[in-house]
């Protein structure tokens, strides 16, 4: 029964086919196909297998047979190896594809439906005409991402990332604190700081050192050497009040307020000179902590900030100096250290010394309890210092104070001799003493001249004289001590 005679309502039967042993003729195949089309009429021919697919199946079957023969090494019925048989068959004639000829095929059955194959609806796709539309690439990627990364996995990753960030933050914080502590660590004063220029300075010295026994306030100029010194009350220098306008000539003020030249060999003058030698260049900590001493011979025991006010805030450094090791390693520098840094210091290790520095890194204090050398800087300035220069009429020569010179002066008709160089100097100083004794209101008052003339005439006279006011006795002592009119103070007496 031919395909054209087959009832369309009955199920498809498997066509009976006969296997041809001879190769099909191309013209015969075309004729059969034409008669088939004429008999079918409007029946749509079933799709046939593509030619290239048949060729591929043939080649694949031949290749598999050759590989199997080569692997097992078998033989055919004729005694020929399977590998040779497969090779010869493949080369001589095309082999049939390894398919069952009785297997139903779509091309041999009913005609293919004219309509397209409906696409299976996808989950979440819209109904209707849009149900058969494929999802976009982004939608598929998002769907795959959600399935591959469920919420609990994403949550776990977020928690892990948060923990890592927290650990990193803690590590950064701890590291920053460590670095800050390292930067803020206690350390000795830096070498070679940039400090303001110090030309004029005032220093309170409380030294009991054997080489410099000096206690008082010393104000001096670091360039010219001019100075003023006022002894500390209650100390061995309490009565010392010295001035040196040029750093060479020194005057001491006596109880009467006059200035007496002082020999440079006097102990107090020698102590002041040695103190200025140590203090003149003590602007920074380098004056004590020298360059060679910083090479491992300094130990910092403590560092403390003192003072609440910003203007008075200072930093105290408590140090230990290995001076024995330093003296052995650098003998020349050790000698210089003794002469310029600390007076009377011995070459011992663990030598304690305390330094004070202000906010400008200026050295403002040193205390060495072992030697007794101690001082505190009260003020400093870059301006030059001018020490008090005694007036000529205020200078008394101590070697001629008790001598009567041949200089005669006449005041209000009274004549007396003075130890001063001129009468004007004697009268000017005498008027000042009269005001100080309360016998006149001012130096230009006639009462001042009268008081000076009256007392001087009595001091250099032959008879004693009594006065109602005790101011005359005071004036008599001042005039004699100053050399204005040397004489006997016992001649001036108080009445009653």
List the main descriptive attributes of the protein structure presented here.
496 residues; alpha+beta; outer membrane lipoprotein receptor (LolB), chain A; 11 helices; 33% helix; elongated; disordered N terminus; transmembrane; membrane; transmembrane helix
Task: Describe it.
This protein has 496 residues and is of the alpha+beta class. Among the domains are: 133-185; 200-381, outer membrane lipoprotein receptor (LolB), chain A, CATH 2.50.20; 392-494, no CATH class. Helix content is 33%, strand content 18%. The chain is built from 11 helices and 15 strands. The protein has helices at residues 26-40, 51-72, 82-92, 137-148, 151-183, 267-279, 323-329, 331-340, 423-436, 446-459, 471-482, and strands spanning 200-208, 213-221, 227-231, 241-244, 250-253, 259-262, 298-306, 314-321, 351-358, 363-368, 373-381, 407-411, 414-418, 465-467, 492-494. It has an 11-stranded antiparallel sheet with strand order 6-5-4-3-2-1-11-10-9-8-7, covered by helices on one side. A hairpin with a 4-residue loop joins strand 1 and strand 2 (213-221). Helix 2 runs antiparallel to helix 3 and helix 9 (423-436) packs across helix 10 (446-459). The longest helix has 33 residues, at 151-183. It is elongated, with a radius of gyration of 63 Å. The termini are far apart. Residues 1-44, 75-95, 106-117, 128-132 and 399-405 have low confidence and may be disordered.
